[in-house]
Design goal:
alpha+beta; Rossmann fold; eight-stranded mixed sheet; four-stranded antiparallel sheet; 36 strands
Length: 623
């Protein structure tokens, strides 16, 4: 029997990849460490664990065996700088981790994981990036103190003997990447202060310790003369100091002269070697048996280099490197496989420790096509995913509907790797454009800086250009274009709906509707971010209002669906309700879903499933 016409129309294709399957594949791996006795450890998050992040390990003497170490009542996650990062470290026969609920440090036995004891007990403080100072039986960490009159960040040392806390350095607004030399005589770290973000201007500092651990001297090594984004300082086993800098546009690796402090480039690629440092402590380079291990974040897909040689692994995206002597571990992803933890010794091939599944058949998996739109200073980038479902094919003159994905940040990026939430759409006959508009990271400092003072303008120009070129090339159906985004991506989606008349519908997932309100209620880490993105909120109030979707809602003519967490403290629920009401009063087709158990971002699997199902139904109503 022939299938009904509606089932064959792109956008209405049937698929076995349902909402639950698409969401369940959202397992994440991060924060890898290798024990000095060879065991591999990492942090794992999956949506079905109620938002918990757990430490897992593969014991050195039992390859292929995965053990879960974090007990039921704990979750390993720091909220320092709000976005967290490296939340634990190994110390001989124990580990130290930051517990998500109270943000305190805990000691956990490796032999008896149920044996957990608190190291700190300060309900007004948070911790991140614990570093073991074995010589002095203490842990070095970034401490964030929350007081009624503000938030203070500093570097501290915490005694494992009596829990005494000593301040090592303070005075900057933010600290990250405390890195101890192998002889424990020096500590390198990154610091910066308002109005800067870690991707605009930071400084590299070092502390010299006396034998008993007191600070003997402190020096600013780099970043004092000209603005540059410095990140990921690293001491080698020979105590040579390296750091990443974008002083020549792209984030490359430099060696620091021990006497003069001068930086000498050891990599000079026309590509970024790290992403924007939203999180602290995550590594993207290192040294393995004296050879530099580095990731090049190419537009077509990342490349892993050991020494001068590219290493084949079957994957094209890498992060969270962990290296100990001749052992290397990292998190990897690819266009047709789910994220995996990989491990190798110097002369061996990579093996998959966990993850790396291929959930879709070859013909059912849409592969990303690297795209460039525009030219010169206005050029932007993205990845186009065409429809892919072996049970269907497009007619000779048939063009698919398009869904434009906009990442959050906005100083972030998207990558050409398997995302089942994208495949959910391509399986049903949609094309997806995952856009790295100007201001995204991974294309150099100049590209990142094009958003400065022009947020709400530049990325709209890029969307217009991308849509124009895709229509001109007869790649998509010009009457069936949809746009969606979360957080700042939701802000861009709403602004695009206000400014452009090419959309059949759009979706805002906890999207920013009023940057003025956001500036008043945002957290310390981003409290000057909008000054960089738009301008001073007092002197440039007109710009804030001109680029606020909530003040331009009367320009929207396309249907819009909203998804909002009731516990959101970044995008206030009342802002979303106000915009929904404005559209309803004008008779615009609008739908809104509010989640009582969600904040800024949806972590509950059931809620994420409802978002996909509702959004698909909403778009299909416009086809």
């Amino acid at each position: 029997m022939a299938e009904p016409e509606s089932a064959q129309k792109p956008g209405f294709w049937e698929s076995a990849l349902d909402e639950a399957s698409a969401v369940a594949a959202g397992r994440e791996f991060s924060q890898l460490q290798i024990h000095n006795q060879g065991g591999l450890y990492w942090v794992e998050y999956s949506p079905d664990r109620k938002g918990r992040s757990l430490i897992c390990r593969e014991p050195a003497n039992r390859p292929g065996t995965v053990e879960l170490l974090t007990p039921e009542d704990y979750s390993v996650q720091s909220r320092v700088h709000e976005y967290g990062g490296m939340s634990w470290c190994l110390i001989s026969e124990q580990l130290i981790f930051v517990n998500a609920d109270d943000q305190q440090l805990y000691l956990q036995s490796l032999d008896n994981p149920e044996q957990i004891t608190p190291l700190t007990s300060h309900n007004d403080r948070r911790y991140i990036e614990p570093v073991w100072d074995q010589l002095r039986n203490r842990v070095l960490a970034v401490e964030e103190i929350h007081r009624p009159d503000g938030v203070e960040n500093r570097l501290v040392a915490i005694s494992l003997k009596d829990e005494d806390i000593v301040v090592l350095h303070q005075g900057y607004d933010f600290y990250a990447y405390p890195t101890l030399s192998s002889d424990a005589s020096s500590l390198a770290f990154i610091a910066w202060s308002h109005p800067h973000q870690p991707w605009t201007s930071t400084q590299l500092l070092t502390l010299r310790f006396t034998e008993d651990g007191e600070v003997e001297s402190a020096s600013v090594v780099a970043g004092e003369q000209e603005p540059e984004s410095l990140s990921q300082p690293l001491y080698t086993e020979k105590d040579e100091l390296y750091v990443v800098s974008d002083r020549d546009d792209y984030w490359n690796i430099y060696q620091v002269d021990a006497v003069s402090g001068q930086l000498t480039a050891v990599s000079a690629t026309r590509t970024d070697l790290i992403p924007s440092p939203w999180q602290c402590g995550i590594r993207h380079y290192g040294f393995m048996d004296d050879q530099l291990v580095v990731i090049s974040l190419l537009h077509e897909g990342a490349q892993l280099m050991i020494g001068c040689s590219a290493v084949e692994s079957g994957f094209n995206h890498f992060k969270s490197l962990a290296i100990r002597k001749n052992k290397l571990a990292l998190v990897a992803a690819s266009p047709d496989r789910l994220p995996a933890v990989l491990f190798k010794e110097l002369q061996q091939n990579f093996r998959i420790v966990v993850g790396g599944e291929s959930p879709l058949a070859e013909r059912d998996c849409s592969k990303p096509e690297a795209k460039q739109f525009g030219s010169g200073e206005t050029q932007c980038y993205g990845y186009l995913y065409p429809p892919a479902n072996c049970a269907y094919e497009l007619g000779l003159n048939e063009r698919p509907p398009l869904v434009i994905f906009l990442h959050g940040g906005p100083t972030a990026a998207t990558y050409p790797i398997l995302n089942l939430k994208i495949q959910y759409w391509t399986q049903r006959g949609f094309s997806v454009l995952d856009l790295n508009y100007r201001g995204s990271s991974n294309y150099g400092r100049n590209y990142r800086s094009q958003l400065k003072g022009r947020w709400g303008e530049v990325e709209i120009e890029d969307i217009r250009q991308a849509v124009t070129e895709l229509i001109a090339s007869r790649t998509i159906n010009p009457s069936a274009i949809f746009i969606r985004g979360n957080s700042s991506g939701g802000y861009t989606a709403l602004n695009a709906l206000c400014e452009l008349d090419c959309f059949a519908a759009g979706a805002s997932l906890y999207g920013v509707t009023d940057p003025e309100v956001l500036d008043q209620c945002t957290h310390k880490f981003e409290s000057y971010y909008l000054h960089w993105l738009i301008g001073d909120p007092v002197r440039n109030r007109d710009r804030y209002r001109a680029y606020a979707p909530i003040h331009k809602a009367n320009q929207i003519t396309a249907p819009v669906i909203f998804f909002q967490g009731e516990k959101d403290r970044v995008v206030l629920p009342d802002q979303t309700r106000m915009m929904v009401k404005q559209l309803q009063v004008r008779g615009i087709s609008v739908e809104a879903h509010y989640f009582s158990d969600e904040g800024h971002g949806f972590r509950q699997a059931g809620n994420a499933e409802l978002v996909l199902k509702s959004e698909l139904s909403f778009y299909r109503a416009q086809l």
